[in-house]
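Researcher: Structure for this, please.
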Amino acid sequence: MQMDYTESLALLLLVLATDLLLRRNYAGLMLVLVFLSLCRPILIPFAFMGAGHGLVLLRRGVTDARWLTPILVSVCVALAGVWPVTAGYLSGEPNVYLNAMASWAAPGEPRSWAAMAINYGAPGWILMAILTLTLVWAAARLVPRAFPVELRAWMVAYPLYIAIATYMSGSIVRYLIFGFPAAVMFSPLASKGPKGIFVLGIMGIAGFALGIYWITHFVGGDAGPIP
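Model: Predicted structure, token format:
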């Protein structure tokens, strides 16, 4: 049985949670995070956004940050287990969530991009280190100075989370939706007039073509690019 995907709702909740975090509406944030935990398993990278928020408060001299930051991070980590625990309780199989996730990989295949890289030994570890440093550099240098620290933390944490928790499949197109804050790196192009707009248009068309190619070649089935 095919169930509906929840990326659209999760994206709405992610944007709402980020807005509530930045406005320090923690009561509303906790409520939204509960619903987000039941849509997509992205609370672990959101914990890094909470940690970044705590650093901002500490730099501003907000004393509450000393206890608020651990609470935010702990809540995110705890809520990350709501989906697996709920699935295990309702199905009567405690490990049903983990077993379902593992079933996407063929026997003997690595369970994630990171695992595949690490299988190559030192070169794989070096590749993961380069990826991490590149993400940190991009979050620090390729975004406007006013860009919130919380979203910079997400720009680093979410791609690393995807690398650690997922492997090659057509679903990567859905997963990358939540990396939308990285699009701010291309905002300077919009201020360069028609040439910049043209470049953004080409990037959009290329991205759309790549998406169709990925789906038709990696998802499988006979439905074509638009099932």
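Researcher: Any notable elements?
Model: Residues 221-227 have pLDDT under 50 and may be disordered. The CA atoms of residues 54 and 65 lie 5 Å apart.
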